[in-house]
Amino acid sequence: MKDLFIEWMYRTVKIPYQWVFKKKEAWPVTLQDYLRLPEDSLGFHLGCFLCQHNFDIQATLEEHDVFHVLTHTGITVLDEINMQFYLLGNGKRSPFLFLVIGTGLVFYPFKLKTFYQTYCKGKRAHRFYDLDFLQLLPQPIAHLQQTLNIKP
Do residues 142 and 40 touch, judged by C-beta distance below 8 A? Predict the structure, then answer.
């Protein structure tokens, strides 16, 4: 039940968050464009992730799905909370990140050790949260993960 509440809260906050905080342009890329990239590329893996989970491209929020792909993070509420702890460790700061982390601490206090371990992984990775991922879509995902020290 708490996961349903958290998912509802995230969906409710997403639109105003996009409007207020995401002033950049949407990527001029379609799902088919992703899937035309080399099979070892970040973009191809992103396209597969979107297809696998039956997701649409979220305009101006594209990098969020890139984070899922790069960190091999699933899509459950707990996975999302863990990914935000990873990004916090990597240096990212945003209202959405703090909302998710706060939610995680309130609803999953027994996962604090896991959250801390995930935070430490993000800290060990080289700063990647603010890269221009649109330009990196053709790059091999394994090379990016190795170069950036991104460990699942």
Answer: yes
